[in-house]
Amino acid sequence: MATKMALMTKQVTWIKLRAVVVIDDATVLGATTKNFANRSAGTGNAVPVPEGINEIIVTFLGTPAGQSAVFTWKLYGFRHENGVAEEIANGTGNIGSVAATIHPITKAAAAATFYADFLAISAQYWPKTVSVVDVGAAGTSIAKIIFDGFGIKYLLLELTTCDKDTSNETDELEAIYTGL
Question: Is residue 8 domain-resident?
């Protein structure tokens, strides 16, 4: 008699990865240390990944809208507390013109908040491919980073260009994630 096996997945709602950032991060983990305990509390904490998550999906929201609102990012994963950070990928993004009229986490009205419509991966260091999904023409889609979590327990996002210190950087930026 053949045994039937079912694939068990868990879908979670959007979770805040980074609160609204209005200034650049200093290097969150430092150039020489990548320890979990050394992350800077002021520039973003590692957030737990719910158990049972296989694929992780990250997207960004910010102001102002438009192709000139740019930012750079680095995404890290930790396999356990007090472990070493593993850089997943890094890259750039633009805030587009797709409005987030209702915030995906708070469910409150989100005035003048827009999704990233373009994400590019500059480098990736993960065992499997880290992908960007960006459908449609620039300005009309919601771009997402998608990757296999490989059992990581925490995510940490570093934002290195987002403080509007030049005319083409975003004013405010936040990141959210979900998983399957």
Answer: no
- Count of the separate structural domains present in the chain: 1
In a domain, 71, yes or no: yes
Tell me the pLDDT tens digit for each residue of 143-168. 999 999 988 888 888 877 765 545 55
Domain contains 9: no
Q: What is the DSSP string of 127-163?
A: SS--EEE--SSTTSS--EEEEE-TT--EEEEEEEE-S
110-148 burial: b if 16+ Cβ within 10 Å, else e: beebbbbbbbebeebebeeebbbebeeeebebbbbbbbb
pLDDT digits (tens, 9 = 90+) for 95-114: 888 888 888 888 888 877 88
Q: Are 158 and 44 in contact (CB under 8 A)?
A: yes
In a domain, 127, yes or no: yes
Domain that holds residue 135: 15-179
